[in-house]
Design goal:
about 375 residues, alpha+beta, 17-stranded mixed sheet, globular, binds (1E)-4-oxobut-1-ene-1,2,4-tricarboxylic acid, EC 5.3.2.8, OMA_tautomer-like, isomerase
């Protein structure tokens, strides 16, 4: 449990990489119950608000300014629950609205590490509820016996995900029912493709879609981008970012999300024909900074867009066939393969998705916050 250490409060914490994201994970019971007090502690732990997060353990980028709060579940259909928190480094709020499939990959390892879940054999499978959206994922991690005869989470292995150097043990993730996570339905406007009028830009064709992550899918070419830029090139292109943000604000209203000026969603996905052997090329803004690869549910949603006839993504995607297509979503550091399960009776309907992630426990101990933050309750 949390305890005093001089003028600070020490809170048990595991620092973990989940997929291509990183952040501290907590047992919910070690944090203040009151949400405002909890958020003050999480912000202090990361060092926000501050662009550099110099007074905390955040990594000064949206992908490394994330937290996970995990708890056992009382539900019979779920083994473990967690809340994902997104903090913009310079921001002063913890956004618990949307999904994060990268941080999700570290939740079951955290639960085994902390004794919330007993390893069941060489492989341990659990159903994990993301409270943000109600999404349930079935996740399998490797839990072989160690030299001490006990079962531990295995982190070492040969599985590679682009965006993370080297190999790791595979973590298998399966999703059902991810449609409408934040926007309420898969196609919140009811259309596979819309034309919106954007101030200063003109008419733009978009696909507004949410199969786990609310996305605006648009051709990079519409903004004079090739769609193959590096994240640094996108981050440096003020004109491109301003036009994409203008589009985002219009699409926020069209998607029923209201004024999204201060919100972390929808994310922007610039698509182009595949540049390598993949199905489609993507560049993501999350929403103001370029993603180094692509989010997990963002990849699921982009892949889903690719199979919907008439969508902006389907127009540039190549080589997707069958009722269980593996869609290779290209991104700035490689590709992300998502296997979609299509309804055989309606191949325009995606009913499940499966993919591979990895994770690693990086540090185990206490994170320290000024006690004035912890006792704000
Ligand atoms: O879409 C970044 C990430 C994410 C979210 C973001 C994610 C997902 O890569 O499931 O994983 O889109 O802000 O961690």
């Amino acid at each position: 449990a949390a305890h005093r250490r001089g003028s600070q409060t020490a809170i048990p914490c595991l620092l973990m990489r989940g997929g291509t994201s990183r952040g501290p994970f907590f047992d919910e019971r070690a944090l203040p119950e009151d949400v405002a007090a909890r958020d003050a502690v999480l912000l202090a732990a990361l060092g926000s608000p501050d662009e550099r997060q110099i007074d905390g353990i955040g990594g000064a980028h949206p992908l490394t300014s994330k937290v996970g709060v995990v708890a056992p579940s009382a539900r019979s259909d779920v083994d473990i629950e967690w809340t994902f928190g997104q903090v913009q480094p310079a921001g002063s709020s913890v956004d618990v609205t949307a999904n994060c499939g990268n941080m999700l990959a570290a939740v079951l390892p955290f639960a085994v590490e902390t004794g919330m879940i007993e390893p069941a054999g060489d492989r341990t499978t659990a159903r994990v509820l993301t409270r943000n959206t109600g999404m349930i994922a079935e996740i399998t991690v490797q839990t072989p016996r160690g030299t001490d005869g006990q079962r531990h989470v295995e982190y070492a292995g040969q599985a590679h995900i682009d965006g993370v150097p080297g190999g790791s043990a595979p973590i298998e993730i399966g999703f059902l029912d991810t449609a409408g996570s934040v926007a309420g339905s898969l196609l919140p406007t009811g259309n596979v493709r819309d034309t919106v009028e954007v101030p200063g830009v003109g008419q733009v064709e978009v696909t507004l879609i949410d199969n786990g992550q609310p996305l605006v899918v648009v051709e990079g070419a519409r903004f004079g981008a090739t769609g193959y830029e590096t994240p640094a090139e996108i981050d440096a292109d003020e004109r491109l970012k301003a036009e994409v943000e203008a589009l985002r604000l219009v699409c926020g209203h069209a998607m029923g999300l209201g004024d999204v000026t201060g919100k972390n969603y929808p994310k922007m996905t610039l698509v182009a024909p595949p540049a390598h052997d993949g199905s489609v090329s993507t560049r993501s803004l999350i929403p103001h900074v370029a993603h180094q690869s692509i989010g997990v549910l963002a990849a699921v949603t982009a892949a889903t867009a690719c199979v919907l006839e008439g969508s902006v993504a389907a127009r540039v995607a190549e080589g997707i066939t069958g009722t269980e297509p593996t869609v290779s979503v290209e991104h700035p550091s490689g590709e992300f393969s998502v296997t979609l399960g299509l309804d055989p009776a309606d191949p325009q309907k995606v009913v499940r998705s499966a993919l591979l992630r990895t994770a690693r426990l990086l540090m185990s101990g206490d994170v320290l916050v000024p006690s004035s933050k912890f006792e704000k309750e």
